[in-house]
Amino acid sequence: MLRDKAYDLVVVGAGPAGANCARYAAAAGRHVLVIDKKAELGVPTECSGAVSERGLAEAGIQPQDEFVITTVAGFITYANGGTPWRIDYREIAGRDRIGYVVDRRRLDTYVAGLAAAAGAEVALRTELEAAQRIDPADPAAGWRLGVRHHGVPLEITAKILIAADGVGSRLAKWLRVNSTLPLHEAASCIQYEMINVATDHLLEIVVGQDHAPGGYVWVFPTAPGRAKVGLGVIRTMTRQPAGRHLDRFIESSFMKDRFKQARTIEVSIGTVPLARPLPTPYADGVIFIGDAARHVNSLTGGGIHTALQSGRIAGESLAALWASGDYSRAGLAAWAATWERQMGKGLREVYALKTDVFRITDPDTQNAEIYNLLGGYFHPTSAHRKR
Amino acid sequence: MEMPPPARKLSTDLPLVALPVLEADGLPAPTTTRRRVVLSLHVDEHRCLSCGGCISVCPRMAVPVSRFNSLDEGILCRGCGLCVQVCPVEALSQIPIALTDPPQVPAGDERRRAARLPAPASDEAH
Questions:
Q1: Are the Cβ atoms of A247 and B119 closer than 8 angstroms?
Q2: Which residues contact A57 (CB under 8 A, 6 or more apart)?
């Protein structure tokens, strides 16, 4: 049973964005409930789990053995034909790590734990079924919410609703926020966890239309001898679904010898929004964060630290604007401005880079440009590296 | 690792979008007849891994996958097929189905209401 009936904030979705938002808002004294329809945190895993050290730090998360599978020391970007571009920070900067591959189940559990420790209530297997404004004429009056908690229908109230319900945000659709992802910006991803794949703490990325039209292939280290091998494709650029592309990459690409002994032990799939952030991710008494608001690096597809960070910004700024009592669209604009300053500008810049490179029509030029763009992006001198 | 082609069988117990009345022999009618043929969405639950990609690209919020608990408003589907394309594991397919009785499609306000969040069932709350 839920502990209360009236909350300041109700966060829908207990992923990294929602949980981190709840953590910061609760730490600032707000009465927060996080709900998620799932019974377990972090599953199904729709994510490769790569996150930079700086990204975690900016979101206020210290790396823990609990969720770190392995450390990452650099990148190898392969061109369409297989030419590698190796950027190993152990060699060029003497740093043994610049990031991590994390276990999303454990990371999500850890962040939800931080939220609960800060005083937020986390309720899984709790689904939002209905939402009504208490007073349609007064945007600050808040929401009357119907939730199904462990199968039992309950009615609760919230001043502000936070939609952190992921790429297929139902809340956005209910509230008539146009969040439909255009097909040409929906990276359709599939990933195998494979054994017998040698790795060396480097994130390996293969670009090029031959392998992953519109996206890239990744080979990320996990446990010794194991790797996550996956790819994302844009379905307007290929006739085949992602799974066929990945099988073909493993069986017949320039890297095929490496996968001779490899065996798949797990399959996960997902959709990554490679879109620009929602232009106005808020309305009276409701804000959108994380994948639901397209808070994703649309060049790399990285979404863990962007979600965590957008959660932190939302939690901090909502708590700060609480004193004003203005939860209307106008009041929430203060949060949006803070978010824009800290994250929005950077995300829009990488979106512009990605859009430009996919406008190139000649395939060879495009492959080369993507190679330069992504390889250069991972270089220590990159202006965008910090995002 | 080659995946078999998507299932194409027709039967009335499949999760169907438009809840159509099948022809007596269960086969799609030729499109040359004047009977209405709709593209019905079939979800292969054995392949689906619940990633929700189909829902994220659906312009009408019509993907009828009960495990996502989306609104059971199959009537909203217009057969654009974006969901079929975005699915990484070929769990979705479109099957042409002939209707003997065209579905009652609500118009105007009725249809908009169907897409809206239902009101809370306050009398059930406890």
A1: no
A2: none
Do the Cβ atoms of A34 and A11 come closer than 8 Å? yes
**Is the model's pLDDT at A10 over the cut of 90?**
yes
DSSP A379: S
- Give dist(CA A182, CA A276) in Å, integer: 11
Q: How far apart are CA A128 and CA A146, in angstroms?
A: 6
Q: Which residues does chain B have within 8 Å of residue A46's beta carbon, measured at their own beta carbons? A: 51
β-bridge pairing A226-234 and A263-273: unpaired
Q: Is A95 helix (H, G, I), strand (E, B) or coil?
A: coil
Task: Reply yes or no on whether the pLDDT at B16 is more than 60.
Answer: no
Inter-chain CB proximity A44 and B70 less than 8 Å: no
Tell me whether strands A121-123 and A32-35 are parallel, antiparallel or unpaired. Answer: parallel
CA separation for the pair A159, A134 (Å, rounded): 10
* DSSP state at residue B118: P
pLDDT of residue A265: 96
CA distance A171 to chain B (A): 9
Q: Any idea what DSSP says for residue A65?
A: T
Residues of B with CB under 8 A from a CB of A: 1-3, 49-59, 61, 68-70, 82, 85-90, 115-122, 124-126
This model of the complex carries an ipTM of 0.81
Closest-CA residue of chain A to B53 = A271
Distance CA A175, CA A108 (A): 26
Q: Where are the beta strands (DSSP E) in chain A?
A: 6-12, 32-35, 50-52, 68-72, 74-78, 84-88, 99-102, 121-123, 126-133, 143-149, 152-163, 186-195, 202-207, 216-221, 226-234, 263-273, 282-283, 286-288
Q: How many angstroms separate the Cα of B106 from the Cα of each of A174, A192, B114, B123?
A: 18, 44, 9, 28
Report the run of H or E that residue B97 belongs to, with start and end. Answer: strand B92-99
Number of residues written out for chain A: 387
List the structure tokens of A143: 């929401």
Q: Is pLDDT at B83 greater than 60 in this prediction? A: yes
CB of A92 within 8 A of CB of A3?
Answer: no
